[in-house]
Structure formats: C-alpha cells, structure tokens
Amino acid sequence: MAFELAFAVLLRLVLVLSPLRRLLKDDSQLSSPLTSYSRLREGIYLFREGINPYSGGTFRHSPLFLALFSTVIPDSEAFAAILWACVDVLGAWALVRIWRARGRVGTSKRDSLIAALYLLNPYIFLPSLSLSTSTFDTTLQLVSLMFAAQGQASASLLTLAFTAHLSLPSLLLLPPTVLLLLADPYSHLASPRPFNGKISKGLPLFAEFSAYFCSLVLASTVVSDGSGWIINSWGAGLLLPDLTPNPGLWWYFFTEMFDHFRPFFLMIFSVHLVIYVAPLCIKFQHDPLYAAFLLLGVLGIFKPYPTLSDPGLFLSLISLFPETYPHLRYPIVTTLLHLHAFLLLPLFHHLWIATGTGNANFFYASTLVFGIANGGALLDCVWAGLRVAMGEEREGYVIVQE
Amino acid sequence: MRWFAFFSLILVQCSLSAAHSGEEYHEELKLRPLPDGKLAARFAFTTLLKGAIPRAPTNLTVNDESQHYTLFPLAMGQLLREYAITELHLTLNAGKWDYDRWGYPEEPGVGSGAELWTWMGDGAPTSIDERWKAIQNAHAGLFCASLGSMDTQRTTSPTRAFPPTGDLPRLPAPHVHRLRHATLPAEHVCTENLTPFLKLLPCPAHAGIAALLAPHKVFDADWHGLGVHVRWRAGKGVELVMTVQAVFDPVRMSAERKRDWSFHSVFDRTIPRSCPVATTSLIHVELPPPGDGSYTLNPAPSTANQAVATFSISKDLPELDVTMKWGEESRFAYPLDASSTPLSDFSVQRTLKGSSQTHGQLSIVIRNNRPTELSVLYLETMPWHVEFYLHTLRITGPDGQQCNDLFSNMTYTPPVPHAQPAMLQAMLTLPPLTTLRLTMDARKSFLRYTEHPPDAQRGWDLPPAVFVTQSASGGASKRVYTPALLVDLATPDFSMPYNVIIMSCTLIALIFGSLFNILTRRFVVVKVDGNVPKVQ
Amino acid sequence: MSDAVEPRESPLKDPSGLFFEQPRTRRTIVTSYWIVVLLALPLWWSTTSIERLSLPVSRVHSTGLKQLHFPLQVEFDHNASSLSFEALEKETRARFSSLQRQSEGRLDYLDLRFVAIESTAGHPAATGAYGVSIEPSLDRATVRDRHLSVPVNEGATHIPFTLPDRLVSLLSPYTSRHPPGRFEHLVAKYAPRYRLAFTMLNEDAAGGRPVVGWDVQEAISRHLSPILDQVADLHNFTIESQVQFHSPLAFAPYEIKSDNEEIHGLTQEDLKVFVNSAEWTLSSSVSNDPVLHFILFIPSVPHTPLRILDNDHNPTSSNAFILPQWGGIVLLNLPPDTSSPPHLSEGDLAHTFSIFRTQLLKLLGVSDLPAGVEPADTHLPLTKWQLDTLYRQRAIENAHSSQETLQSIIKLVDQISNMPVGEGVRGDIQNALTALNMVYTVGWQSPIQALRHSSEALTHASRAFFNPGMLALLYFPAEHKYAVYTPLFAPVAVPLVVTALRELSAWRKSRRVATETKT
C-alpha cells in the first residue's frame, strides 16, 4: 500500500504544479465560498496587513485556518500542494484503518483497493487539486470515524469538534459517533440487535465534546479579536449571503426566492438537515458506522454550501460495506446518473458563465440531476442496509415494503 | 410706553437679526481654446454670504433664526441649514474628460455621472447617515435628478482623497466632521437638471453671463457638466459656487471645418444685457500660445496681457458677442503628435478584463509624463458586486519586473455583501517617464432575483477611480477621474421563480418521502409463484 | 400478518421478527420526525408573521361619539344704563339662533348664557366670561381683552339694534366685513407651525429700474411681529425672505387706455393664474410645514403701471389680492419719473406690509371686529375676545379632523389584512386618543387648553396615518402563498400524516386487544 500512496502523492504534485491547476482554480463545483483557496489567501493577506478579515464578506473560513496558515505554514503554492496531497493521503489511510477495524482484519490486498477508491475518486481528487479546504473537512471526518472505530473516545471527539468547527453541518454526526464509541464498529447489518451499549455512558461523551467545542470557539475568538467570525463563517450556512453557484440545491432556490419568505425557507432547509439524524440513528442503532455513513450521504445532498467532495466522501465510503452490494436495487442507474451529472455540471457551468451561450437554468438542471443521483445512491444504500438483515435472495420470493 | 415699545422693537429686531452681513454675487466665464481645436468653457456663479457661519449640528434641536436672502438662493439656504451642512459638492457630468488632450479642468469634479459629497458635523439628534439620506432626497427634488439611489451600497468615506476645500468650524468636543461620498456613474445630466439649476441664479435667462446657457448647445458639447459647491471660508462667510463646464467643438459645428468661434456659433446666444446685481461680471479668454497661428479677437477686451484677455460687462453695455477668428487658416489641421505631448502630468487607463462572469481582472496602466517622480493617492471605490482579491495586487514596471514597493500606505475597507462597498486608498510612487501596470484579480458576485435592476442585461456601472496628485511643495493638489466601467454580472432566469420553487421542492420532497417510507414501512415476503403473487 | 416460514425452506428471515421492524421502533421514528416538525412550528410563525399590533378600536369609536360644547358666558353690567337686560338677551339669542341655523350645525358647539351683574369696575367676575358694559365717557365702542364697552351717547335708540349684532359677530368665528360664509374658504388649514415666505419679485430687473433690496426685517418687526406674538399660542412661525430678479408673467396683461394713460391690467381671470410656478422659484420648504407666501410684485417697465381690473375691465383702487389658503400678493408700481432708489426702505414698505398684515390675519382666520368697534389698546391690535373665538373654532376643527383620521386608520387596517401595524403607529394613536380625551373633559373650560390638546391630537393622528409603514402594503394574494408553500409541504406532509394516523390506530387497536386479552 505504501507504493500506491507514494504514487498518488507524486501524481497529485505533478498535476497541481501543472497548468491544470489554473483551470481548476476557483471552479465553483470544486470549492465553495466557505472553502476556496483564493479567499483563504485573501484572508491571510488582510490579517497580515492589520485589517480584520471578518469585517467584509470575502473570508468565510474558520479562524483556525487563519492561525494555521499565517503562522505555521509558509505562504507558497508548492508547499500548499504538498500539504493538500499529504492531507488526502491521511484521509485514505484513515479509511483503510476504518476498514480494518470494521472487518477485524489486518493488512490485506483490499487495502490498496480502498485507498485507490478514495484517492482516485474524481470527486475527491479534483477538489484537492484546486486546493479547496473541503479536503481538510473530509480528512478530519474520516480521522474522527477512524478513532471512533478504534474506540479512542477523546481523540475521536476532538477531531469531530475540529470538523464541526470548520464546517458546522458536521455537528450532526455527533450522535452516530457517540453511538459508535459506545458500541463496536463491526458489521451487524446481517443480524441486527437493539442497541446494547449504555445510553448513560453517552452523557460524559457529550460533555467532553462540548468542552472541546467551546474551547475551540474560545481559541477562535482570541485569534480573530472578536466574535465577528461566527456570523461570517457559521452564519453563512444559515443566512446564505453568498449565492455563488455550487452543485447543491440551496443556491438557485434562494436566488429566486421572494424576500418575504426568505427567512422562513432558510429555517426550513436548516431544520430539514436536522430531521434525519434521529430516524437514521434509531433505525440503524445496531450498526452506528452505517448510520454515520448514511448521514454523510444526507449531508452531501442537502448541505448549504456543498462541493463535489461531500458526495465524494459518501461514495468512497461505500467501499467499507461490501455486504450490501448484492442487495443494491439499481446501482447501474445511479452510476449512470452520476456520470451524466459529472459530465454536465462543468459543461453547463462553462456555457453559462464563460461563453454566455447558456442560461442559468442549464446548470440548475444539472444540479437537479446530481441531486437525483445522490438521492438515488442514498436510498439504495438505506434499502440495502435493511435488506441484508433478511438474508440472501431466494428464487421465487421477493421482499417488498407495504 | 413708547420707550417700552421702542425697546421691545430693538429686542425683536435683534432676535430676528440676519445671520450674515451682506451678500455678493460674481459671474465669470472662462474660455480656453484647446490644441485639438476644441473650446473649453467654464461658467462660475459665486454668491458669498458675508459673515455667515454654517449651522452647528447641536443646534438642530432649537428653532433656527429667520433666513433673509437677496442674492443667495433660498432653496439652497434652507437645505444647508436644515441639515447643518458645512461643505457640499454636487456634480452632474456626462462624457469623458480627456486629460491628455484637454489638460486639467478648472473644477476638478469631472467624473461622469452624479457625484455628491459632504462634510457634516455629528452631534445632531439625527445620525449623520439619516441626514445624508435626507440630503440626497432634497437634492434630488431640487435638481430633478434621481439621486435617491445613493444608499449605503454606494456611500463611502474617503477622507484622504476628498479633504475639505474650505474651512471646518470647530465643534464642541467630542464631535467631529465626517465625510460622506457617493457616486452614481449612470446618472446623466440633461435639460431637466439645467432648468432648476438656472432658476437658482439671480439673473437667469435674459441678463448676464447665464444668458449664454442654451440647453441645446450645452448638451451637444463633447463633455458637459453642472456643479454646485458650497463651502465656508473662515473670516469671509459661506460661499456658493455654481459652475457649468463644457467642451465644445467648433470644428465639428462649422461647415468649413474651421476652429473660429463666437458666442453665436458656440452658444447660439449672445449676452443681451448685464446683470444688475452682479458685483463683477467678467469673461476671460485664454489666448493661444504665440506659435499657434495668428488670430483676431473681437471686440476689444477691457484688459489684456500675454496670456489672458478679459472682458468686463458693464451696465450700459449693448449686446456682447465675442468672436475669435484665425484668419489665415482655411481649414483646421489636427495636430498629428497629440498623443506624444500630453497636457496632463500622468495618463491613466483603467479596464476590467476577463470574459468570464465569475472572475475578472482590474488593470490600471499609468504613465508618468513628467521627468520628475510623482506620488499620487489612488482611490478605488468598488460596489460589493465586484470583490477584489487584494493579495493578487501586482505592479509591473516597463521591463516586466515586479515593483510592489511602489504601492504603500494602504487603507482598505472590505466590502460587505448587500451592504457596503469596498474602499481602497493607497499611495503610488511613479518614477519619471515610466509606464506602470497595476493588476488585481476580482470576483464577480451573484445577486438575488430582487436585487437586479429592470435592465439586468445592461450590467452595473462601476464608479471611477480617483487619483489625487500630492505636490510636495504644498501647491494645489489635482484630482483626476478615470472613466466609469461597466461590469456584466451573471443573471438568473427571471421568469422562473415558481418553477424553481416547485422543482427544488419536488426533489427534496421526493428524497424525504422515499427515505421516510423505507424507514417506516413494513417489509413483507411475497411469494412469486406463477402469475399471481401470493403473500406468504 | 404472515406465519413464520420454516427455515428449511428459505433463507429469508421473517422480517417481522427483526427488532427494527417492531412497532415500537417504528413509532419512535415517526415520533422523532413529528417532534422536530412541532419544534419548528413556532419558528415558522416568527419568520413569516407580519407585525400587526392591536389598535384600541373601541376607544376610537367611543371618542367619535363625543361632542364638545363651549359655554359662553356674557355678563352684562347694567349699572349706569337704562336698557332692559331681558330685551337685549332675547334679541341676541334670536339673532344667534338664526345664525346657527344658517350655518347648518357648524356653530352648534357654542352655548350662550347671559348673566346680569352689578359691577362697578367693569371687569368680568368669572374668568373667561365676556363682559358688556355701557360707558358714558367713551366716544366710540371699544373692546379691551374680553370686555366690550359701548358709549351711551350713541343714541339710546341705536343700542338695541346694534349691540346684539355686535355681540353675535364677536362671538361667532370667521366673520369679516364681507358677506358671511365667504371668509371660511380663505383660511388656511391648521398646522402648528407655518412658514411665512416673503418674496419680492422683480418681473424683469435687467430691463431697467431693478429693485435690488428691501428692508424686510425691519418691516416685519414693525408691522407683523406684534401680531405674530399675539397669535403665538396658536401657531409657531418661521420667517424667511428672498428676492427674485427675473419673474416673468405667464400671460400678457390686458391693455386699456384710461385718462390718456396706458394701463396694464389683470382681469379677474388672470388673478387665478397669476402665480407662475413654472418660472418663479418660490419657497418650498424642506420640512412638512405649510408655507404662506407673501409676494411683492414689481412689474417691469413695459408693464408699469399694473392694476387690477374688475369685471367690466375698469381699474379698481386696490392693488392686492389673496389666493385662498396660499398667500397674498401686492402689486407695487414704481413711479416712472425719478430714477427710483434700487432699495426699498422701511418707509416705502409700510403700506405694503400693512396690507400683508391684513392678509395674514385673514389667512389665519382671525375675525375682524364689527363695524364701529375698535381695540382699546392700539399696541395690541388683536383682542382676547377675537382670539378666543378663533381658538374655539380651530379646536373644534382639529378635534373633528383627528376623529376622522383615527376612524379612517381603523377602517384601513381592518380592510387590508396584510398591512403591518408597528409600535409607532399604535403609540401615536394612543397619544391622539389621550389628547382628544383631554379636549372633551377639560377643554370646555378654556379655549387655549382645548386648542393645545386638539392640536396635539391632530399631530399624532396625522403622524400615525402617514407613517411610512402604513403605506407599505404586502401584496400577497392567497394563491401566491399556496404556490410557495405547497410544493414542499404537501408531498412531505402526506406520508407524515398518513403514517402517524396509521400508527395511532394500530396502537389503539393493540391496546384494545391487550385489555381484551387481559380480561
């Protein structure tokens, strides 16, 4: 596996330092206003010049990035390329470790396959090339799941606090992570049992997470000299001030929404994210890792400012659950829809923005197709996860729902 | 009883006493023939309220003293006192002032569109921004210009580039004077602005120099603009200067393509009578340099020296029509080397490059035409639609080398979406006789459906950048405006609000509903046997 | 539902045996969905509601039914007189009732009361009462404060005829020496603050003989300030003046020849269009206060002399006229012989400003004293009697106007269900109602109090009515709301509601079965 990882790092370095980077820089499918590298550089520049980067609307990253990039990491693109490649590799390594923890296996040939499925997934690969900080989000998420799968509570909660701090919707992954810490990561999809951990042991974990989270908030306030960063970075997901197109569903809806109903629908879309947490955790309490996987899928579709890496994380995580593959009902359709959307999204974006021969509706239609593709994948995975419990296929019998 | 009445009369008189001790009105017209055959004209109508002091903002709670004016326009007086304005500048211009060919204008405010800036003291019961809004609306009503859209999305406070031109009275601590500045580059000046402008003058249409202002000819000029400037000079009083500037093209208007001009040919009018209330009424004609061909000037001026000929309009003057003829020229020959001998100290070109609707690049090319080093203050006000990436600011010299050190002493206010424009003020040092290129990446925003104007495909106007030369010797600083830019922003489909709501909501409801059903419905095993499935 | 399948026959497990197929799990899941929905309902309310505070409708209606009556007490001092008090009272009442009938109810707020007193000093015994006495030592009738003194040697036969007339004229508002009923249309609408704009218009200063200045401040302080001080309880005044040097007329005046002299005249029709608002810059205030214009018009040399013509196109003797509710205009023809001074001194303006004074009093609604009656104190040209009458009339008008405004606000808010009603509007309405209550409870005691409270009520009611929030309508027909809400909530609500109902009925059935099996 080390050979593959080194190859992946080298490939990424070569591509980042090639003209491909110029093409992908600031592409709105690969980086959103919350994750764009140019905005990060701008914020650091303003910070160094003594201007509060949160007094305007350009910089929406967390103050921790500000602290990291203005002090520890030097300001050069080559170094940034190396850093991003390493972060990606760390994510792949964490994914492999989760697989090993789940399957209770050691090193095997499947490791390379899983690492390749992550590193060569274009949804993960391309945002990393464009130096979008969503790579950090996905890697930290995977590291948090890895620690939870290995049973290391403090490390897992600390990384989850970091993830939630960088991207607030990730806060929704706290319940399945706690459930995972209280139970085990092994696959119970085939033989579900009610949750056998103690709920009361979860309360100290919640408290620990809150402590980590609050201390991060405090550190950020100190770094940025005030609490203006909350409105700029977290408030962006709740108030949607920036309407740059992205592969998600929020931007065009709120571009065309009437002013009177805007606060109401912002509230509805945010509550809609929250409404999935409890049902998925209750239904999949026997396998919290699968519940976390499904919630990541939900976030990938319905997040306020998604990039391609959020559905990409969901698709790469499918490699952890081979027991569900026989029970997927329409994988071909979903794959083709994904291919369809993946080709149309940049094409229509280019037609609308760069050449001006297209319309905003073209790109909007391709985001709808992308949403259907992701939704189809999510629904199929939920069905397959439930269907595994009922045994193999048998001639002459089908299982339906009524 | 009579003493009482007399005494009370004195008291009443004191309480109603005038805020000023006299008024003076001066008229002036300055004509300057330009090397490329054009004629630059500048009308200035100055009214001085001797001894007057601007109203202190803290006095806005008590009733103001009565205002009695003879020459000063009452509408302006009411406006100035109602909002306690110390200094006010309003310009309405159309066209692009070519600094290289025409030199520097007499009045520096030549940015195209409407520009309004005021210095006001705080300490009033209403905030400065509320008074600023009310001032815009009052001016919009007074001059029939739609200035009301200068809201917070266009207002900035560039104190380094727009210092007060007069004096500011001292306010009780801790109150200070504040600047509010806004530009509307798309607001064009036309006859409906000139008519109320002229009505504010004591002698508008048939007497004095203002009789020359015929709307047809003034608005036919290559560049034309109106200006209203109010300032306070300590020791003198409140001064109101109303200006009309225009650059006419006699060559274009004459049949033989000659650059001879007269009042009749340029303004289509002459001065019939003098204004009875003007203290001075002067016409200055700048004489062309000696090598420029021989010319005749009729009638004979009152005074003349080598550079300027002055006509003074007196009370018993018959109709005055000044003409200047170049007798020996049969046809005007445009100078062939105009671009190599620019009249300005430095030339600026500003463009917004890039064909994408998400990103662009602001490019400024400055050329220093003088053999000495110049330092200029560069002011850029950008609405929030176009956001700069300051970290991409690069200055390239003529050989391609990077000289970012020529850019110093920067103040920057970042833009806030939907609220506040960006303001950048910095000092640029221009080495002698060099061309510098300044580039900066910019990002174009996406607006909400309701924020687009009705003609959304036209684009948005970006206000001009302002360059202020700082003369080390303490002389007057000159203000140079670049032309306004037009930026094309991506538009959503305006016919689609309900469609978008329906389609997005359908997708969300589809996924929600399907997920809900999978999670809550019962699984059953169905035996598929033959043709009829039987539930087992 | 189905029996368990033998494990030998098929590897498919019975789904109903799985724990996540248990009814309890299912119900927990449905409940968790519904909990989130119910928690979000208050947020829905807070993000889409329009602020519509409740208005005191009943108070407005009850205030609308009230009426204000001013008791007028006239004390007749019949000491040194041989007149019969009863005859005088009967005559005055008869004339007053006929005037009230003619006014169609507009004067019904006055209650006349006569009292005969014995008083040597001649001062009214009760405060606010009006005294009438017959003094032998006077040579003409005078009014001082609220006391009318009639000389006895006007003829014993005159008094029974003129005294009631004089009393009625003094007690009813809007009387002038013109036919009754015409005066009301001249009077400007009430406002707490007026701007008095004095403008001197030269028709064409450059054409020769310009007038470049005038001593307006001295003229105002001599002629108008005493009046303005006396009326200060009624209005505040802001004074401003300007001079215009080029103010052409929009029409050519009529030319007639009279006494071998060419006269230019303004016909009665021309007077209506005299003010050339297009070319003249008259004072337009930057605030909301109404402006009363007083214009001194100096015609140009070709149009001098300018006279006002009557209906037969003969020149009249007057050179001034009032534009109702707008202001007054005085024409000043400069003498043609001498080169007139370019500056009008205070002496030159004396006649003009006395005309302005008369016009101002008419525009404010101050009634003239009846014929033959003069003020006792020449330095105080307006007597308290006149002012009282005006205060009462203005108070009644203001109260009536406030009531109408408040009722129309209530009706408007009621009819337009989408109109927001903010805190400012409600506060203003409540203040107006408080002030109106004060008018009705204590206003009858003193006209000044009534005026103050009624003016306050009018200010608050107008401010509430013209509040910018009241004008912003939210145009949301019901179809628009359906179109926005339905696409998301209808498909989402259907499975939620159907499943909840199904689970509820299943739960009830299982409970019933459980209790049945227990028994």
From TrEMBL, chain A:
Domain of life of the source: Eukaryota
Name the UniProt record assigns to this protein: PIG-U-domain-containing protein
UniProtKB/TrEMBL annotation, chain B:
Protein origin, superkingdom: Eukaryota
Protein name per the record: Gpi16 subunit GPI transamidase component
The organism of origin for this protein: Artomyces pyxidatus
Automatic annotation (TrEMBL), chain C:
Source organism superkingdom: Eukaryota
Protein name: Uncharacterized protein
Protein species of origin: Artomyces pyxidatus
